[in-house]
Design goal:
Distance between the termini: 49 Å
Order of helices and strands: HEEEEEEEEEEEEHHEHEEHEEHEEHHE
Helix content: 10-25%
Number of helices: 8
Strand content: 25-35%
Structural class: alpha+beta
């Protein structure tokens, strides 16, 4: 019977993920072992607090601006308390506000999460959140609109020099990533997480949203990137990146550039071949490790994602991917491309299509299977 119940719950959750129009479930504070926290709604926000115990639901509190809620992990349960009384111990807590489907983000129903144990950064999220315990820490899942998720991803960009077109390009790529990876954490009962396994997502940076970021997301609403197979592009996959080859490097020049690392000068050319794998940051020759960023700077390479092969007896050939140190297009990537005439234009579409070879930008309504995420623009 227990197995049947688990299967039924899994089917229900899968249906929820696929049919909740434009909503995503994001595991936030994923890499923090949070034991205690405070929830405080922002101005004008109103929430119902639902406690779930033995699969029965109970409305236990109304949360609005000026009130706070204390939550604490208690074994496999969550203990909830307001300023004046304890509200009980539950299997799960749902913090649910009035759901507003709009393209603008300075609206009601956002809240601040302030972890107490451990004392880590406070964040503001939109829409709703579910909190439960896995026996070791509190698990927080933010249910939010896909474009508010995109805003949260773009809010991690701190460089004030970035252009509006770059923000538009990143909006399209972040939306594409989310839709391409909807089932990445399906076994955990959420879509995505907020750490490097997915994309950094820290909610808002403040109580109001960066107007440049909001504008970029609104102007690219419903737009996604497709790869060469006409499937939604995953911008974090190396296979989707532009390829490049550096002119052959003379072996003696290569040895001289590495001399500072005490590489033996009598090594044959075959000792210097190197194959890149994602997550690798060192170039290894015998027992010596050299940071790839040093090699990139020394030889003017566009990326640290490269491999080295022999070309004849006295020279090396370097082949690589991308224009930077991250598959997910950074602003430095774009600047390098523009300075080296590797980009056809300064608009968002040109940036993406130049960086991800063979890609194209299309309305989401033209992609089969994603109808529920298409927004009506009024």
């Amino acid at each position: 019977m227990k197995i049947i119940k688990i299967i039924i719950l899994s089917i229900f959750f899968a249906a929820t993920l696929s049919t909740s129009a434009q909503d995503l479930f994001i595991n936030v504070y994923e890499n923090q072992a949070i034991k205690e926290l405070i929830i405080e709604p922002t101005e004008k926000s109103k929430y119902n607090i639902i406690g779930i115990k033995r699969r029965s639901e109970e409305k236990i509190y109304k949360l609005k601006a000026g009130r706070v809620l204390f939550l604490r992990q208690d074994g496999r349960f969550v203990t909830v308390q307001s300023l004046d009384k304890e509200l009980g111990k539950f299997d799960e807590i749902q913090i649910i506000g009035k759901d507003k489907k709009c393209l603008f983000f300075d609206r009601e129903n956002s809240f601040q999460v302030a972890p107490v144990v451990p004392d880590v950064e406070q964040r503001i999220y939109d829409n709703n959140i579910t909190i439960k315990s896995d026996g070791h820490k509190l698990v927080l899942v933010n249910k939010t609109d896909i474009d508010k998720y995109v805003v949260g991803v773009l809010s991690s960009i701190n460089d004030p020099s970035v252009t509006d077109e770059y923000l538009k390009a990143k909006s399209i790529l972040a939306r594409s990533f989310a839709l391409k990876n909807l089932n990445r954490h399906k076994h955990n009962r959420f879509n995505l997480c907020d750490n490097d396994h997915c994309l950094p997502y820290n909610g808002r940076k403040g109580k109001s949203v960066n107007s440049k970021v909001e504008k970029a997301v609104i102007e690219t609403v419903n737009m996604v990137a497709l790869d060469t197979l006409n499937q939604i592009l995953d911008p974090t996959q190396i296979v989707n990146l532009q390829k490049w080859t550096r002119p052959a490097i003379d072996l003696n020049d290569w040895k001289k550039s590495l001399a500072q690392y005490k590489i033996p000068q009598n090594l044959s050319i075959n000792y210097f071949t190197h194959n890149y794998t994602p997550g690798q940051y060192q170039y290894k020759v015998e027992k010596v490790s050299i940071p790839l960023v040093r090699i990139k700077a020394k030889h003017g390479l566009p990326s640290t994602m490269f491999n080295i092969s022999t070309q004849g007896t006295f020279s090396l050939k370097i082949n690589g991917y991308g224009y930077g140190d991250s598959p997910f297009m950074t602003y430095d990537n774009v600047v390098w491309m523009e300075e080296n005439s590797k980009i056809s234009g300064s608009d968002a579409k040109s940036m993406i299509m130049s960086y991800y070879v063979g890609s194209k930008i299309v309305p989401l309504s033209t992609v089969r299977g994603f109808d529920v995420f298409v927004k009506e623009i009024k």
